[in-house]
Amino acid sequence: MNSYLISVVGPTAIGKTSLSLKLAEHFNTKIISADSRQFYKEMKIGTAAPTPEELARIKHYFIHHKSIEDNYNVGAFERDALQCLKLLFKSHNVVIMVGGSGLYVDAVVKGLDDFPDVDPSIRKELNKELKTTGIESLQQQLKDLDEKTYQNIELENPHRIIRALEICIGSKKPYSSFLNQKKAKRPFQTITIGLKAERDIIYHRINQRVDKMMEDGLLDEVKNLQQYQHLNALNTVGYKELFNYLNGEWTLNFAVSEIKKNSRRFAKRQLTWFRKDPSILWFNYQNSFDKIINQLTTYSI
């Protein structure tokens, strides 16, 4: 198999973008983004998307190619990414993929899990419950029905929780029982590189990034999106907290502190997800690029 996908993963703010650019330049290739929020063209600052200068260095795919009003999900991304890779591998034997959205990374590398069809009325009832009693009620239901999923899911994302719950209720089986049942055969070999650091370092880098986002105009970006705050794409760390400030519920300082706290929680969930994969080659975020390249040479790329 002569086609290689080098996938760069790790927690937020660890340096994935920088490494992906160096790898793409080294292999003279292109980059696919597997970040589920960098898809949206209206969300540049709060998603830490590559800068215009970085985008000019290397051709990227799946960056700002959708609007927040578009209905785009992981299934559509799997289809589009595989088609993009098929074309790229015609002229490159190596392609780089980068992103911290574990589900989207796995969709490309392993394929999506196969879930049973369930009665649509279940989702309607869960959405009604979300509006009337709040997300905490749904979180507790999920904990009662599927402790394993509760421990691994993004608990602040109502879309993910409702999806898991409708499967639990509709199938009368845990959502987690349908996971990892099959491995998709891909016409390429994947090598996954993970970047890591001590927890205190990750948290410090996150705090610095949030401060930089605010300096770069995140608040103005969120103000311009306030009328769309009901959209699922904007139910995202960095945006939902500032909506609370703009809606008069929080002070600005508290909103920023919540962005930092929720980003740290997100980083913890990312690491939990990726550490389940024993095939990942882990490197300290300060390891030299030469060390990473030397490791990759063992794959005869």
From TrEMBL:
InterPro entries: Dimethylallyltransferase, IPT, P-loop_NTPase. ATP binds at residues 10-17. Residues 35-38 are annotated as: Interaction with substrate tRNA. Its EC number is 2.5.1.75. The keyword tRNA processing applies. Substrate binds at residues 12-17. It is an enzyme of class 2 (transferase). GO terms for molecular function: tRNA dimethylallyltransferase activity. The keyword tRNA processing applies. Its cofactor is Mg(2+). Keywords: ATP-binding, Magnesium, Nucleotide-binding, Transferase, tRNA processing. Transmembrane segments: none annotated. The record marks 101, 123 as: Interaction with substrate tRNA. It catalyses: adenosine(37) in tRNA + dimethylallyl diphosphate = N(6)-dimethylallyladenosine(37) in tRNA + diphosphate. Belongs to the IPP transferase family. Monomer. Catalyzes the transfer of a dimethylallyl group onto the adenine at position 37 in tRNAs that read codons beginning with uridine, leading to the formation of N6-(dimethylallyl)adenosine (i(6)A). This is tRNA dimethylallyltransferase. The gene is miaA.
